[in-house]
Amino acid sequence: MSGNLLELKNLKVIFPSEMGVVKAVEGIDLDIKQGECVALVGESGCGKSVTSLSIMRLLNTPPAIIKVDKISLDGEDISKFSESKMEEIRGRQISMIFQDAMTALNPVMTVGKQIDEVFLKHGKMSKKEARINTVKALKLVGIPEPKSRAKSFPHQLSGGLRQRVLIAMAFACMPKLIIADEPTTALDVTIQAQVLNVLSDMQKSHKVSLLLITHDLSVVAHTADTVYVMYSGKIVEKAKVEDLFNLPHHPYTEGLMGSIPRLSDTTKHFVQIPDQVPHPMFKPTGCYFHPRCKYATEKCKKEMPPLVELENGRLIRCFYPLNMSEVKK
Amino acid sequence: MIEKKPLIKLENLNVNFPVKGSMPFTKKKYIQAVTDISLEIFKGETFGVVGESGCGKSTLANAIIGMLKPTSGKVYFKDQDLFSLPRNEFKDVRRSMQMIFQDPFSSLNPRFNVFQIISEPMLIRGDFSKKEMEEKVIELLNLVGLSDKDLYRYPSDFSGGQKQRIGIARAISLNPDFLICDEPVSALDVSVHAQILNLLVDLQEKLGITYLFISHNLAVVKNICDRIMVMYLGKVMEFGDTKSIYKNPKHPYTRALLSAILDLDIKREKTILKGDIPSPTNPPIGCRFWQRCPYAMEGCINKVVPLIEVEKDHFVACHLISGFSDEEVSEGLNNPVDKT
Known about the structure:
heterodimer; A: alpha/beta; 8-stranded mixed sheet; 13 helices; 34% helix; B: alpha/beta; Rossmann fold; 4-stranded antiparallel sheet; 12 helices; 22% strand
């Protein structure tokens, strides 16, 4: 297919251990178009971060074993690239925003110097030019007094500012693809809204593709175009964001949406998905979601449902998808 | 049903932290973490405290539970002044007040197994035999949705939600009357939020515990709290009955917090506050929110804001609501502030 910036075909990641094999990711296909924001949603332990690290080729092998048919970035298959070639790509073509800004930044270096590094590595410029660009980058993400802020250390900045520094760093060389791994989880609601606005403004104004990884569907609602829902190493649903929120097909998606507390709720009890994600070493037979699914039947316990394509480009992995009759109308 | 009898009563509570000056002999500076807070928490209710990081929510909780000595003001628990009690009596009273912490990953000792973690409060109290403790711990585990198989496992074997359940079991092990939940779900996955919140609601119904519930997410607070207090930089902004605050939020800060909530409603307009919470070292005499308030007026900076009752059980501290006298208007106090 043309027009896809990133094409990921059949990604499998396993971690062999003494106790057994951990199947973290089991055959994932992911496409990201030019300038599109794609969200990958799922609970902790479902393999989201492993997927993003595999795209960046940042997983240590060993212990991880990665098998993939194709990771193509802008037509080039990067899965076979050497480490030195990957280093050129990271930062310039793909970059990453990490979850916890305090641990992602170096505590003994000023934030300016850390962003300078990106320019020095990829831009072939002098230190002075790098600093000018750094100040510009900080200004773009809405940091007040960028010149003096560049001289401060990470601990002198608030959580929201630190996250903005990370965004500035990721956008420094205007890469084609940015992977944001839970960019707002560690932040307050007000600051979360600010940071998401910055991120999505930057993405739209610079026509960068964004892979947003999160466990919070409410973050997705305001930023993403396409959503992939992941459960226990497999994609269970893919849809355009409006379609997904209007009519979720997979019971897991429905559960995720229900568990978000809303202002319009009136009851004291919250809708919840019982239990938790199965341990990746001891996955249930059949559909991985069946022990937590209220619609599960005998068939679900025995067979893994295939990923089926529906009319409007949606994908669904369920024998008994919800809200199907309403789609046909 | 909620009896109108205060379990906790705060009178003009202040907590200041000294800041080290850069030079000796200069005037000492203080961070005013909590300023002049008076409130009553009734038996059996859930009282919510809402605000951004750094607004003094956790300091308030620590002062109530006696982990921090307030600079001035009094804390009464069941009509006893906590900080004038002799040490041994204080320890007794303190047993009926417990706390659930924000981060279950760091609040459990990784070298203790579940039994040791949950039985530690009983061990410290000292009048339980090993057998009694084991029975009690199993009962607690069942109560919070874990099983007796987990008794001798270590915290690293559990997921975030399960760890928080262990934290809750530990907190209720001595049958407390009062439980402080300091952001109990913010470190967890969204899908687990509902599980933990439901557990807390169920426990309250079963055991009749009074909660002080701290959160920065107004959507979470709405459904489980009877009354809430919105704090900003150590001061009360809005305070009162949950229903009336959500129906009719008066303070610009409360409105901003409500609007910042992310939900599944894609098209909702949002007003997003600019900037971060400022440093509480030298707060203004007037409204502490004026720097970020979209409606700030000249008078907000220097004139003390009164906490006025706008309707029954609904108090607001804002000059927009209380207004200025004619004299003050002629002095130009209601002119908008030029922030540039």
